[in-house]
Amino acid sequence: MSRATQPDGLLEVGHFGRAHGIRGDIFFVLSTDRDERAAVGSRLWVRDRWMTVTASSNASGKWRVHLEGVDDRNAAEALAGVKVHAEPLDDADALWVHHLIGATVIEANGIDRGRCVSVVANPASDLLELESGALVPVAFVTSVDVSGGVPLITIDPPDGLFDLND
């Protein structure tokens, strides 16, 4: 049997933890804040194939799922530690990291601030890291346009934010 190639554009959404019980349940550790990734019916790319969540529960912040075709403890244990990918969600109101990295960042007045090279997790507000080394809180993002070839992020930063980098 040949292995399928991972489809383009999938996002890593978590990994499987340890098996639970003898019927194939397994803990699912999300790396996203979107709980619908663990919901019944969610389609996940796991080890070169699509798998569907057929049962799901959350207890104390831990997701326990059952996947179609994983019906015993041995099959669940074989998935422990495996990374899980899924298709991007369609949510126009959300800022997606995969849209931000590589995007051109401009101020509302048209000043080009360069390319976003990463998104840094920060308790107060995640930060866009620009190729210049500047950090811009995502709270200052006013729009993200992904309709063209290179995504475009428009920001409205306060005066002085770039003084150390200019």
Write up what this structure looks like.
- With 166 residues, the chain is mainly beta.
- The chain has two helices and twelve strands.
- A six-stranded antiparallel beta sheet has the order 3-4-5-2-1-6. The protein has a six-stranded mixed beta sheet with strand order 10-9-8-7-12-11.
- A hairpin with a 2-residue loop joins strand 3 and strand 4 (49-59).
- The longest helix is centred in the middle third of the chain and has 5 residues, at 73-77.
- It is elongated, with a radius of gyration of 20 Å.
- The mean pLDDT is 92.
- How would a crystallographer describe the biggest sheet? 6 strands, antiparallel
Question: Per the principal axes of the C-alpha atoms, what is the gross shape?
Answer: elongated
Distance between the termini: 57 Å
> Strands of the biggest beta sheet: in what spatial order?
3-4-5-2-1-6
Question: How many β-strands, per DSSP?
Answer: 12
User: Which percent range describes the beta-strand content?
Assistant: 35-45%
Rg is: 20 Å
Secondary structure category: mainly beta
Please tally the helical runs, counting DSSP H or I stretches of 4 or more residues.
2
Residue-averaged pLDDT: 92
SSE sequence, one letter per element: EEEEEHEHEEEEEE
Quaternary structure: single chain
Spans of at least 5 consecutive residues with low confidence: none
Helix content: under 10%
